[in-house]
Structure formats: structure tokens, C-alpha cells
Amino acid sequence: MTGAQDKLDKMKLRQDYRNLWHSDLMGTVTADTPYCCLACLCGPCVSYLLRRRALYNDMSRYTCCAGYMPCSGRCGESKCPQLCLATEVFLCFGNSVASTRFLLQDEFNIQTTKCDNCIIGFMFCLSQVACIFSIVACLVGSDELSEASQILSCFADMVYCTVCACMQTQHKLEMDKRDGVFGSQPMGVPPAQQMSRFDQPVHPPVGYPPAQGYPPASYPPPGYPQH
User: Fold this and answer.
1) Is the pLDDT of residue 168 over 80?
2) Where are the domains of the chain?
């Protein structure tokens, strides 16, 4: 109980993060259009590459779903992390995207804006509604209702793929900033124990200036090229 309560307390504290993503979800399409298209067409492959990059290409840091799921640390990750990560991104794609997001948020104290939360929430709600609608159509046996449920499911899948692609592009842009691609000073590699979602301290990790490179709450960030 103590461990579960400690995790819950830390999750609540993370709601106080003050830094922002380099780009919000709505801006990712114009900020890096080619990468957004790649993430839409080949989401699992992009998820694999982004997780490796989030771990500074050091797979000894890898834990299934970044330590966020109950199965984390119990899948033999230490023996073959590459295979485990490949399995994660293809079989649990949504969790793999979310886990990379949590890693970056915890590392840089990044909050998710209300607009981004609404977009992500709409994606989840639409998927649930489509699932319920499909079940009802199956039980009723109506051809018209079945066709309508298929259209709704197709729309839900399109929204899911689009939002996940934007999220992954958002993660890529954040790591570009971390690595000095936009001209800022590249940040050093933190200790391995700080890469866990729950085990790291909730204050800014040692070696990471709490405000360096992170602008006030505005989009686009100052100095970012306009499109």
C-alpha cells in the first residue's frame, strides 16, 4: 500500500509541472510536416526510434512501457531490450507512445496544455463510443446500424492515427531541442535511475537547468520560425 500511495502522490505532484512542449499538438503538422507524415504511415517504427532516442540510445535503461505498467520489469527486458521494445511498439502501440511521453514529461517537467488534453481525451472517447456502437450493432443485427458503426469505427481509427502521429512529432521536436538542434546548448545525459516514471524525484533532475531553453507559456516559442 505504501508503494502504491507513493506512486499516486508523485502523479499528483506532476500536475504542477510548469514547462511546455516545444510545440503543441495543433502546431506539430506545420512544425515538421514530413516527420508527422512518417509517424502517421509507420507509427510503430517511429515509436521504436523515439524511445531509443529518449533513452539516449542506451538500451540498458529500457524497461517495458517505461516502468508505467504492471508488466514493466517482468518481461526479460535486461536480456534482450531491443526485442522487448519491438514487441512493445507493435503489440502495445498506444502504451509505447504514452510511455515515451511520460519519460519526457518527467525528465523536463513538461505539462500538457488543456487544448492537448482535450484532443487526447476526444481521441479516447471517440474510440470507446465506436466500440460500444459496434457491439450494439452486432447485438441488434441491423444492416444499416452495422454500416453506420463501421463508418464510425473508421473515423475513430483515423483520429487515433492522426493524434498519435502528432504526439510522436511533438516528442521528436522536444528531443530536437534537448539535443541542441535548434541552436540551444545540448543537455547532458542524466543518471539512469532518473529515467523511470515513478522512481525519479519529482523536482528537476540534477544536471538539468530548470528553466534553460524553456520559454514562457506561449506558442510558438520565441525565436521559433513562423510558417
Assistant:
1) yes
2) 8-178
